[in-house]
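Problem 12. The chain below contains 711 residues. Write out its predicted structure in token notation.
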Amino acid sequence: MAERAGASLRREGFAREPEGEFRPGGSSARNAAGGGDKRRLATEILLAITDLIVDGRELPELFEELAPLLRELTNCKLVVFAFCDGGNNSGVSEFWESGSKTTSAALAVEESPTAWVCEHQQPLLIPDLELDTDYAQTLAQIRAGGVRSYSVVPLATARRLYGALGIGRGEAGALSDEELRLLERAASPVALAVENHEIHREWKQQQNRLQSLMAISRELASTLESDQLVPLVFAKMREITNYDYAGVALLGPDGRFFRVNAIDTGKSADMRAREGERIALSEALSTRAIETRSVTFHSADEVDHPNPVVKKLFEDGIRRVCCVPLLMGNRALGSIVLGSRQKTAFRGDGEYLQQFGVLIAVAIHNASTHREVERAEDQLTQEKEYLEQEIRGEQVVGGIIGKSLVLKHVLDYAAIVADTDATVLITGETGTGKERVARSIHLMSSRRDRNFIKLNCAAIPTGLLESELFGHEKGAFTGAVSQKVGRLELADRGTLLLDEIGEIPLELQPKLLRVLQDQEFERLGGNKTIRVDARVIAASNKDLARAVEEKEFRNDLFYRLNVFPLHLPPLRERREDIPLLIRHFVERCARRMNKQIDLIPDEAVEAMMNWRWPGNIRELENFIERSVILSAGNRLRPPLAELREEMVARRPPDLERTLRDRERDHILEVLRQTRGLLSGAKGAAARLGLKRTTLQYKMQKLGIARSEYLD
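Solution.
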């Protein structure tokens, strides 16, 4: 290439005219006589160009009127307005010939006159295109129009370089210095016009984007449902960027991975990625955006990424990726990842996308908070319904009625264990008041201000028990039209009573064991682990130890439940409490039925004290209720004929004594002989052939108090 230096390029074989000569029409001789007129004409043309710039016309209209003026000023055949981007690697040229636009073409400017002018910011003169070999391919279109020489000057202002202004003549020869100065003087207002247009376009774009952000903010603020939010986000992003791929990735709770929350591949159905996919922070493109708290851009040519999701994007034709951090104050929620098949996509959108990301982050935070509030409201509603059912069912009771020694022994143990969070297993025959003792333990504990939740494992069908205990997610099974919070979750920081625990199916027992061990579980149909702080009290009228031996109950679950066993004695072993219970039930039933009963016959009390009450306190309560219904006036008239066995004495003969009575007497006798010593070679346990813990369990189960064997 010939030497390029100074304000112009000189090609061998062509000499400049002497400085000061102006030859727009040809040789110096031809121009000598009319030099003054030509200068005046040039000045008028330059003023006309300036007037056009001041009018503030749009660029297409401006170029249409500038082209003939520039042709007249420079006596050229072709005028070319060439614009390049900030990177000087691509641009658009508009060709004007004979005062009209002939073509507009996109071009790569790496090897073009425009590229050289933009790089060096100096004019470039090519005296003969037929002799030029440097830009032959780029200038082929210009040569095809009959142009022999081509001159290019920069279009630049103090603000920036915008491109180049070129003129082509039909004859060979370089511009004179005077002609070059005229061309440069003409280029200055053209560059200023382009700059004004660029500034106006940027200002208008800023106005539009500001209005867009305000509109988007209003829409996002009014959308609190996640299902509606994500499509709205994608729709707004497409308005801004016209992406080919978009994904929303949110940071996990521990901040060590992203989880792909939603994906939109636009019209490109071949681009696949799984929603819900976890991407480690170390492998994610968005990591740098999170760390720098700014929008980042990535090119397929620059990135050799280890993550398969990113590799798949680039393999599917994505050439440029933009990562927008979702920032909520000092907290990063995740990022939006945009992909385009265009290498120059998203340029100039960084600041706008950053502001848009803040709005999205606020919307996601609000939607998440709204979801948590809804979940809390649902839980409170279910708790309220449960408690209302408890109140309607008259399950909230006062104290436990009775003053017998065996009952006092049980209540003493209950008071001791209440201050702990230990699991309690309450055993006893049906109707002995196991639920009331469990509630008393709750009321004496530090959890008294929280929920006491009851679940009867025998009263709920096996297929629904898991859902009732652990809850279920929407769609977990047919009929699961909404999410349900289980009894265990309702009992968080409170107490859960599992009544009739022996009826829980074997397949559910491992899940309950996990709750007792780790205080965590998953809802039916869900995969989210939920942690609870619930104290478990179990109750059963079955012999769970025997159920373990018969493989009907897991032994590991039994040992977890049997941390602190309490056995409630049957009513026949606390007969001295029967008069108190009779009076309590009579008063309560009479008050409920608007009756006044003041007299309870002694013979009725005696008969009821001698009855064995196989249904225990529940049977007695039901019998008293029938008695109140049948009574007229203020005297209780119980249907004693319903007591279908002969009245027995307070202490039945030895032949009629139960095996339980005999076992109790035998243990008491051994305890008296060993003076209360339980362990050791001479202790009661060794004499009875039992382990010390087994003996203690039997003593508690039989209601043997210390005062009965020690004077």
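Discussion. Residues 1-33, 268-273, 392-398, 646-651 have pLDDT under 50 and may be disordered. Students who got a different answer should revisit the alignment rule from Section 12.3.
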